[in-house]
Amino acid sequence: MAQPRVLVIGGGLAGLSATMRLAELGANVDLVSLVPVKRSHSVCAQGGINSVNSLTRQQGDNEWKHFDDTVYGGDFLQHQPPVKEMADWGPRIVDLMDRLGVPFNRTPEGYRDQRRFGGTLFKRTAFAGATTGQQLLYSLDEQVRRWEVDGKVKKWEFWDFLEPVLDDSGRCRGAICQDLVTMQFRAFSADAVIIATGGCGLLYGRSTMSMVCTGSAVSRAYRAGAWYGNGEFIQVHPTAIPGADKLRLMSESARGEGGRVWVPKTPHDPRDPRNIPEAERSYFLEERYPKYGNLVPRDIATREIFDICTNEGLSVEKDRLCVYLDLTHVPRETLDRKLGGILEIYEKFQGVDPRVVPMKIFPAVHYSMGGLWVDYQKSSTGGLVEGSPRNQQTNIPGLYAIGECDYQYHGANRLGANSLLSCIFSGLFCAPGVIAGVDAGGKQAAEESSRLFESRLRREEERHHSLLSRTAGDENPYDLHQQLGNLMTRVATVVRRNEQLAAAYAEVCSLEERWGRCAVSDSGNWTNQNVVFTKSLGDMFPLAKLILKGALQRDECRGAHYKPDFAMPGLQATDLAEKRREAEQWCDRFEANTRRWLKSTVAKYGADGEPEISYEDVDTSLTPPRPRLYGLVGGEMIEEVWNERLKKAAVAGEGQGGSAGQGVGEGHGNQPAYAGSAS
Amino acid sequence: MIKAVESAEHSGDAGQQAVADHGGNGHGAAAPRVVRVRILRQDAPGEESYWERFEIPYVENMNVISILQQVAARAKSRDGRRVAPVAWDCNCLEEVCGSCTMLINGRTRMACSALVDKLLAESGDEIELRPMSKFPVVRDLVVDRSRLFRALERVKAWVPVDGSYDHGPGPRISPESQEDAYPLATCISCGCCMEACPQFTKIEVVRREDESAEEFDSRKKAAFDSGFVGAHAISQAMLFNGHPTGKMIADERLEALTSQGGIQMCGNAQNCVAVCPKSIPLTRSIARAGRAATVWAIRKIFDR
Predict the structure, then answer these.
(1) Domain B145-161+174-303 has CATH 1.10.1060.10
(2) Distance between terminal CA atoms of chain B?
């Protein structure tokens, strides 16, 4: 079979890079997207894209350290081989994007400039102003347009993915989609289907995500039998601008370029922030985390901001939670050159110039670390086998997932500027495997049995028309969405408690029931956004349930998942011997917790529609998990005890060639010569 | 160092709190209780358009998107009739996706960054929303802007790389060149420059009953190609003609810019640059394109 046909759902960074590579490898691609692909949510990514580069390499950096920062920042919840492969590909990917014309910022000599992002001490992040996601997306959009002109790609923009079509053997043979203008249905037959539809922020009502990030495509795959991994891990970004319609992102690059987070020491100090003297300000991140300063990993920065406002009562404003993010000490010219895009957003939407007055920001739901469970094939060197059909394949043969909607790369917490990398990497890397996995004979058989596609098409048409005719119900889908969002934000973001999660699960069940009584206010069959929204709202409930159930069952703290009832506090003792004893206990508890909870959560859609949760071991074969000690009291003692244990284990394991593992430090042992000026 | 957060009830809504309130409302002490809006509606292509009025509770710092969200949620006109929700395009809500262009109080702009306080200050007590007039209406405020993307195909707005295999980094670029190119690269394809241009006129192709989707598509493209490409496409052509690899097909872009619907259509009204939400120096791109096209046309004569 000369030219396979692949259906790609979603045209953000992941979908476009997969499309480009597939076309280059000879496949014909149908690209389905809710919006013109150039308007995908990837445009909102601001700060940059990580990779080891020639500069950091000379300061002691390498791909292994990028890998290590990523798994350490992610609290070791990722399978390690895909992360290693991604870190290895980083430099090549940034080079490729550079060749595609991305206008990365430059040094005076004409090389790519880099800045520092959270969770690392190296300046690994290449950037194009503060609109890096937009620029990366555009360059891929341009290449895909080129393939479109060549006839290898056909775009289906303003189309909605409704369900994958599986044959009797359970293999994916295509999908049913709907034209959002004419509301017509169409069955797409394909050799493989790739889902690249991003995150599910709309489950939380308002978030930093775009309006298409409903999670509906992923939910539809999940209901068709695809597994969902690590659903409870939702990243709450430390810095966003509150708004009635959306919580707009204020990129981590603001801190990467020297931005400082602070609150007045006097609660709700009414003075103009510019008139509050240094001595009366608390730069709480710098005080608590002297090494990483304002660039601690996101989950930590978020909890600290949350904590200082709620527990310590130091919110800048009385009726509204927020802290200052201050750039006013950075020269205006630098700000315009490196952060222009995001500062304009603040100015446009808040009417205040952040170059002059400190910004007011607060955390907001930002990224889904979890997503569709996908497979990989490990290579002998600890990375992945390129061209293996298992890479990025869901448990349904022929159905793949890439980008934010897969669960694979970020574990319990994503590091800033790693998402653009994982999206492009998973898209480019999966393509040869997708082609290698094509089962051409089977596809033909499936096509010939027209019954298969027709029955699925009818089913979707019926679903649609039954919704359209529901004009008499007493529930309003927009109100229900708001209730769902408020509930999820209250119980399943920064701080989680079992009694709240359990109650919320019951409440989601009742919201779902009420959804069944929703009335549509538009019964027409032309560009009916009302019915499309109602449908996607219905798809949010299965995902909300698996997030809540996963969070409820996971009795520990890991990355973004924080349960105070199961936190492991720092050491209390001041006496050295006592402190040492506490550190031993701490490490015992850490080891026990690792054995119990270092597992991927896997949710399967049960026969009754409820999620069935099971756990899968995490492949930590490259570097063993170690305590994440960013700023913990007594961390030095814990580190000492932990390193002794490691040494012992290494001696014991030497005969078997076991890995000695890595000691704890905050990050890796070697410090770069230049750690950047941000902290 | 993180302490257990004691009271999650009080504060569990990370970010889900009332709107930011710095910036003021522009009304002094008396903020309006409701916002009135009139929307020019149209049920489908070829149908008559009609006005419908809505009344929405005022919230501080609200934008046109929040108005439309409320209109959709209520689905009731000002006089209390049940009406179908107004259809409109949006996605990112932070003026970077280019979806939500419409005519707001008569001016082409993005609905997300159109703040209600400012609109009321300029128009009195009612805000007017209309679909863009230079693109065919799909429904209500939704228009078909496929012509805009077709123009990017016409001018080959891409870097003609060999492929995605590794060939090391791209060309070295001076900070000055990057700073020159970057603003052009921030074009969000919103269509404001086309809407405001007197030389850019509407092209609406209606699908025939007996026509397949593919036939309709190619007829549409042919029709689009007879019209003006627009300032955005000229600017994109200049962006890529300025790139060290992009310029390898500079002549092909100039060929497109000097053929039907090309740069000669520009009447130098300079409306494009005035309405661009991203402040892209469109007239500078047009001037550059004009000079390059002239040089190229002369060279073509001598090369014959």
Answers:
(1) yes
(2) 77
pLDDT, one tens digit per residue, over A621-669 is 999 999 998 888 999 999 999 999 999 988 887 655 444 455 554 444 3
pLDDT score at A666: 43
- b/e per residue, B179-193, with b = 16+ CB within 10 A? bbbbbbbbbbbbbbb
Smallest CA–CA distance, residue A169 to chain B, in Å, is: 33
Catalytic residue among A173, A206, A298, A414: A298
A79 in B contact zone (CB under 8 Å): no
Q: Is it true that domain B32-139 has CATH number 3.10.20.30?
A: yes
pLDDT at site A439? 85
Contact B167 A99 (CB under 8 A): yes
CA-CA distance, A416 to A149, in Å (whole number)? 35
Domains B32-139 and B145-161+174-303 share a fold: no
DSSP state of B264: G
Q: Do you know the residue count of chain A? A: 679
Domain boundaries, chain B: 32-139, 145-161+174-303
Residue in B closest to A571 by C-alpha: B1
Provide, as residue numbers in chain A, all residues whose Cβ is less than 8 Å from the Cβ of B11: 306, 309-310, 321
Q: All domains of chain A, ordered by start, with CATH?
A: 5-236+367-451 (3.50.50.60), 238-364 (3.90.700.10)
pLDDT of residue A319: 86
User: Is A39 close to B92, i.e. CB distance below 8 A?
Assistant: yes
Tens digits of residue pLDDT in B8-35 = 334 434 434 433 333 334 444 467 899 9
| Residue A298 annotated in active site | yes
Query: What is the biggest distance separating any 2 CA atoms in chain B, rounded to whole angstroms?
Result: 82
On chain B, the residues whose CB falls within 8 A of the CB of A322 are 20
A95 touching chain B per CB within 8 A = yes
How far CA A78 is from CA of A373, A562, B147, in Å, comes to: 12, 17, 44
What stretches in chain A show pLDDT beneath 50?
A: 657-660, 665-679
